[in-house]
Specification:
- This protein has about 425 residues and is of the alpha+beta class.
- Helices cover about 50% and strands about 15% of the residues.
- The strands form three sheets. It has a five-stranded antiparallel sheet.
- The longest helix has about 45 residues, at about 205-250.
């Protein structure tokens, strides 16, 4: 039972609020205690008045200075007399006007049945009486620890703020795994199915992290099963395509035969790219890396396949460790796309290799009509095409750019696409320096 309760997030929250409630009750108790002390102080005033009556009798009429000195010596009281003569038992007597201001005539001051006026202030209790032409003030000094006025309200406010801050940090610590789970879900949702969320605590949030990890495992398994199915189907399709090509070679030359040959070639290219992209998407990517002058590799490929259609621009000397076969496949797809979509014969598509800090970049630019910005994020998705009609003259079958992205990422790089209407499209392949 205890293990189940300690595992529950709601139980932990309940305990947190109980602790906060106890602290707040203690604070309320302190406030009530202060009020009670104030009330107690007020209730002692009648006793003080009776005490002053006894001192007044001992003082005599008119007030006698010697008697006052005896009273002040034996009691915590100072006596101030103002009349035909003025004197005080205090070494530093207060100003008469200052004492009068404590009992202004225009205000209703407290007066008891015996005619005493009294007022509490920072030093204790002050009583005033008038007898035989004399104003007599009895200043009853109270112990400082009883009636001093500390900054109680400030301390209370700081205490409450401190409690709230502690509650805030305790809640933040309690829910800290939620932030990690949230960021982990975003990473998994972005496509990184290999990412796993660390289990920090053995409670409901820990169970949630396990559930998210299990979900990622299931998705990975389903995608792997789909990948294996595609690979199997692609391999099986090669056999009938090969037989079709053999049978086609026995036919007489005609326009129909040439169209069928184009269709078979397209199917073979699609199967090749599909197999290649699925191989590179597997968890164990196998690249045949070799040190190569990347700028020389691209220049040679342009000369061999695209000499009439592509313009070579800036070519920095870049030594890179790459899979030559796959880089050639990458460039063939990018350059073919650029040629296919360029509409201005005077502006040939261009290719360049540029060293940029910690990366070496390949740029391929065409002079096409541009791409709708809303479609750019989807261009590297498999089988996605900006032209929904999928006509042959407007492009292939939507695997080319997907394969390009897979090849670049297999080398640890990143492929980005930028396009402007009526200007053209620029594709950037950035590879980290080896």
């Amino acid at each position: 039972m205890f293990s189940k309760l300690s595992h529950s997030l709601s139980t932990k929250l309940l305990l947190l609020f109980i602790c906060a409630g106890v602290v707040l009750l203690l604070l309320v108790g302190a406030i009530v205690g202060k009020g009670f002390a104030t009330h107690l102080k007020t209730s002692t005033q009648p006793f003080m008045v009776h005490y002053v009556q006894l001192m007044e009798q001992q003082l005599g009429t008119p007030p006698n200075r010697e008697n006052a000195a005896v009273i002040a010596e034996n009691s915590p009281v100072e006596i101030h007399v103002f009349g035909t003569e003025q004197w005080s038992t205090s070494a530093a007597p207060p100003n008469r006007d200052k004492l009068r201001n404590l009992f202004p005539r225009n205000l209703q001051t407290t007066r008891d049945k015996q005619g005493y006026q009294f007022k509490t202030y920072e030093k204790g209790l002050l009583l005033h009486t008038h007898q035989h032409g004399y104003d007599v003030y009895f200043e009853i000094l109270q112990p400082e620890e009883l009636f001093s006025q500390p900054p109680y309200n400030k301390a209370l406010l700081l205490t409450i703020l401190g409690v709230l801050v502690l509650i805030y940090y305790a809640t933040k610590i309690l829910f800290r795994p939620i932030e990690e789970i949230q960021s982990g879900v975003k990473v998994i949702g972005s496509g990184d199915l290999s990412h796993r969320i660390s289990k920090r605590r053995d409670d409901q949030l820990g169970d949630l992290a396990d559930d998210v990890n299990a979900m990622a495992d299931d998705i990975s398994d389903m995608l792997e099963a789909k990948r294996q199915l595609l690979l199997g189907i692609s391999h099986e399709l090669r056999s009938p395509l090969t037989r079709s090509r053999v049978n086609l070679a026995l036919m007489d030359e005609s326009s129909a035969k040439r169209e069928v040959e184009k269709d078979i070639a397209s199917m073979e290219q699609m199967i090749t790219e599909l197999l290649e992209s699925e191989r590179l998407n597997s968890r164990h990517v196998s690249l045949n890396l070799e040190q190569t002058r990347l700028d020389h590799l691209i220049r040679e490929q342009v000369q061999q396949e695209f000499r009439k259609y592509i313009k070579v621009m800036e070519m920095d000397a870049v030594d890179a460790k790459v899979d030559v076969v796959r880089i050639k496949l990458l460039m063939r797809n990018l350059l073919s796309n650029a040629v296919k979509h360029s509409v201005d014969p005077e502006r040939k598509p261009t290719v360049s290799v540029v060293q940029e800090g910690s990366h070496h970049c390949i740029y391929v630019t065409d002079s096409g009509e541009g791409i709708d910005p809303a479609q750019i994020p989807h261009l590297t998705e498999p089988f996605y095409r900006a032209d929904p009609s999928r006509q042959r003259k407007t492009g292939g079958y939507g695997l080319g750019l997907h394969l390009c992205k897979v090849i670049v990422e297999a080398h640890g790089g990143k492929l980005t696409i930028a396009s402007e209407a009526n200007v053209g499209t620029k594709i950037r392949c950035a590879f980290p320096n080896n």
